[in-house]
Amino acid sequence: MALLYLFAHIDRGNIGNAKIEGMDKDLGLVGNQYNIASTIFFVPYIIFEIPSNIVIKKIRPSIWLSALMLAWGVVMTCMGVVQNFSGLAACRVLLGVFEAGFFPGAAFLVGQWYPRHELQQRLALFYTASALSGALSGLLAFAIARMDGLRGIEGWRWIFIVEGAVTVFLGLAMPLLISDSLERVGWLSDTEKRVLDLRLRLSGVRTNSEESDKFSWKLLLQTMTDWKIALGILIAFANSVPNAAFKFTMPQIIQQFGFSTQTAQLLTIPPYFLGAVSAWLNGRLSDKFAWRMPFIAGPLTVLCVAFAILFTLSVNVRQNMPGMYFGVMLAQIGIYPLLPGTIAWVGNNLAPSWKRSIGLAWLLAAGNVGSIIGTSIFLDKEGPRYPTGYGVSLGIICMGLVSAIVMELALMRLNKVKARISEASVRQAHTQAELDAMGEKSPLYQYIL
Questions:
Q1: What is the dihedral of CA 384, 386, 390, 393, to 10 degrees?
Q2: Looking at the whole model, is its pTM more than 0.90?
Q3: Which residues lie below 8 Å from residue 307, measured CB to CB, with a gap of 6+?
Q4: Is 415 helix (H, G, I), strand (E, B) or coil?
Q5: Is residue 339 pLDDT above 70, yes or no?
Q6: Where are the transmembrane segments (predicted)?
Q7: What is the mean pLDDT of residues 380-396?
Q8: Widest Cα–Cα separation across the chain
Q9: Residue 272 to residues 119, 127, 243, 269, 276: CA-CA distances in angstroms?
Q10: Does a structural domain hold residue 6?
Q11: CATH value at residue 51
């Protein structure tokens, strides 16, 4: 999953690397056309996330996810031959359609293997691919752009062609490598499968009566109006806005410090590497202490400090270059623990599995509205100051921090109410199937804080 997500993020973010290699000039982009091309990706990406997670419950994940990857790899390769803004925008739309189902599907699939208190560090390992993609994208772009002029093709086109071809190759290989479920794999004994199944049932990841876990339109409506997911979406905004902004503008921001194009590509690597380490370390600690909120609120606080530094020092970018670069690195340390933490926290408190599948897709779909904001607020005409970009991001980060605190207090109160209920009386009043159908609203279900 991490390998797949690595290339998903490289393929959606390499437009930023291509831009500073001359893509915008060769295609004749004017005004805010680059921002439009960056942003338009997220429109189909948001629309198709929930339908894709409904499909993945019906079709084997190894087949569905691999087909999506193969399709977006072909689209990425086609971006290397576009001739104008219209062609670029059309490819970005198709890229959003095919990438939409991957992350929610992969997050749901990973969540089917681990008890609730062991999930975040696995999601963090998976999600570090997003941070590493930023580092690897800069390194790959630096190397591939040296092919400029080979066979009469510009260097920025080679970025799309080479990276798209690698994605197609992986898409063809992945059906053999993705594990659909513990029942289907051949590398576990029957005893090991039984142990895993029991652990997942005891943790509440699996229900004891499968007939209580079915899709319905009522379940879809209940899931999309769930208050926990709504708060999770606000926290996800605090990740998606700055994440999308940096994904598409970091090479340009660093170039404005006074560095050459090649140096700017390479200087994107350390911040993303620190983001990957931060995501993994936060996931480890969150699972160790079986506590989600501090390991979301902590990175949000770091992110607030980072954007306050960037907003303040951007009045004179070149003179304040060391502080600005420190702020960029600090921002990645704050950004990358947020999404695995939010997915783990919200997903841990959704049951049964159909609700978890739809809920995670809705969380990511609505949360990605922030990506549209993030790609629209860093305007070329405001560079290198970017007051709108840094200011709006800072406000949304503060909103996410308040949402995390509210969710912690609300879940804590609900657990106290459930603790006063007698388990014996509950089991006398309800069958196991009825309790499973209630999901997290069951009187016996304890929320993860």
A1: -130
A2: no
A3: 242, 327, 331, 390, 393, 394, 397
A4: helix
A5: yes
A6: 34-56, 63-82, 94-111, 123-144, 156-178, 227-246, 266-283, 295-317, 323-346, 358-378, 390-411
A7: 88
A8: 77
A9: 23, 12, 11, 6, 6
A10: yes
A11: 1.20.1250.20
Q: Torsion angle of alpha carbons 239, 235, 403, 283, nearest 10°? A: -90
Which residue type, as a one-letter code, is found at position 342? T
* Residue 342 domain-assigned (yes or no): yes
The residue type at 448: I
**In the predicted model, is pLDDT for residue 184 greater than 70?**
yes
At 256, list the tokens.
């404005």
Neighbours of 148 (CB within 10 A): 14
Kindly report, residue by residue over 23-53, the tens digit of the pLDDT.
999 999 988 898 899 889 989 998 999 899 8
Among 281, 21, 277, 50, which Cα is nearest to 154's? 21
Q: Structural domain of residue 31, as residue ranges?
A: 2-441
In which residue are the tokens 């995501």 written? 279
Residue 131 included in any domain: yes
**Position 70 in a domain:** yes
Query: DSSP assignment, residue 322?
Result: H
Q: Which residue has the tokens 């590493």?
A: 132
CA distance 387 to 312: 9
For the chain, how many residues are written?
Answer: 449
Burial of residue 152, with CB atoms counted within 10 A of its CB: 0-12 exposed, 13-18 middle, 19 or more buried: exposed
